[in-house]
């Protein structure tokens, strides 16, 4: 048993290359919303120049995309007043077009459009060598002509999220990789925002400069929680159109719903309740860990499609952990096999690569410690275009965040279009 564990840690060793710490900024919620994010454009942060690079590189020269995004913003109208004021403040401070700053707030929603979606109406035996009995088949739901340009939106977040009980002390660890294309540029935009009220931390969140929604968050405290969001694609024909309709109808954006949850909820139960019932603008996963508990909600805009609960036997998962990447593996979503982010198409999906390590550790009598989870995040076929990593343990008040060395990732920065073609 010792030997097995030693061998396992040997293969996992050496993965942590040069990494960077995540810059931290205090976002004072007592300031007017227009003023809150000004701290980000102070000389020396480098953030303003990087957001300008993003705008210039991917939008200025692509009128199809830019016009579709601006048309969507115009048709949608203003965001919730507080968010709209934050957007105005960021646009004024950076000099970026307000419609661009507003459009970027729909990042998570728009990019659910990218992958062909599952045809669950006709599950059948696989005849193409993929070998998934009864696998859900893929088909492509085209976008309405008017919004086709949105399909050119830079491919954004893929992710891996694991919630595990460390049997050594019973506490629960939450491990997350945030994967983005244009890794080098995006990694420059990552920061931790410590959101304060009355000079005291109310919550903290890993953010991307220019985007007001939360991406990874934590509310500290005896019954606090950590919150991670992962991209989830529509699970039925017509899902793309529904998402567009929600954006056009002005539904609150997912990232705002999540930040409001961190603000309103001091407890795990409150957060899980809110994220179970609040309307979303698009499909998404909510990965929520607390003190000795955890759950993963596969959200549809109007409700929960599937729940994984730590401590129970979940589909293909023992009670010690639950995990998700970006695909409904519990519904046999065949798209998981075509996910190129782990380095190759039809290779080992990130989820399976992570499970092999977790399962082998348990089988060898090992414990799912923070270190083991950190090594798992960095293991071959799990680490992808990763721009941010977190190991969080609410019970131990641990917020361990870092940015891997871009040079250590399985492939260098690349554009969205080649990958869309590959999928
Ligand atoms: C941000 O960058 C733009 C473009 O270079 C510049 O016009 C603007 O003044 C900058 N804002 C700040 C606060 O430095
Ligand atoms: C998927 O479902 C749609 C709607 O039911 C159907 O028209 C289409 O033929 C199906 N496509 C495949 C590849 O099964
Ligand atoms: C795992 O934790 C248990 C306590 O639950 C302890 O007895 C055991 O030694 C640990 N295993 C390893 C490999 O550290
Ligand atoms: C991991 O273990 C679970 C059962 O505990 C099993 O269902 C699953 O297939 C295993 N996955 C891998 C990749 O080993
Ligand atoms: C296919 O996916 C749908 C949800 O998208 C699910 O309800 C159904 O059970 C899945 N079918 C199979 C064979 O996994
Ligand atoms: C925290 O992160 C660092 C990398 O910055 C890593 O080396 C360390 O093992 C982590 N600690 C825990 C408890 O996960």
How would you sum up this structure in a few lines?
Residues 1-17 form the signal peptide. The protein has helices at 2-12, 33-36, 47-60, 63-76, 81-94, 98-104, 107-110, 183-187, 239-248, 254-264, 268-277, 350-363, 370-377, 416-422; strands spanning 19-21, 24-28, 117-119, 137-139, 158-165, 172-179, 190-197, 200-208, 211-219, 225-231, 284-290, 293-300, 303-309, 321-324, 386-393, 398-404. It has 423 residues and is of the alpha+beta class.
Bound molecules: 2-acetamido-2-deoxy-beta-D-glucopyranose
Q: Order of SSEs, N→C? A: HEEHHHHHHEEEEHEEEEHHHEEEEHHEEH
- How many domains in all? 1
Please count the beta strands (DSSP E, at least 2 residues each): 16
Q: What is the level 1 CATH name?
A: Alpha Beta
Looking at the overall shape, the CATH architecture is 4-Layer Sandwich
Which term fits the overall shape? globular
Question: And the CATH topology?
Answer: Penicillin V Acylase, Chain A
User: Could you report the average pLDDT, rounded to the nearest whole number?
Assistant: 87
- Strand percentage, roughly? 15-25%
Oligomeric status of the shown chains?
A: single chain
Number of helices: 14
- Uncertain regions: pLDDT < 50 for 5+ in a row? 6-16, 119-134, 412-423
Task: Please describe the biggest sheet, giving its number of strands, its sense, and whether it closes into a barrel.
Answer: 8 strands, mixed
What is Rg? 20 Å
Q: Fraction of residues in helices?
A: 25-40%
In CATH, the homologous superfamily goes by the name: Penicillin V Acylase, Chain A
The largest beta-sheet arranges its strands as: 2-7-8-9-10-11-12-13
Signal peptide: 1-17
Enzyme class: hydrolase
Keywords: Signal
GO molecular function: N-acylsphingosine amidohydrolase activity
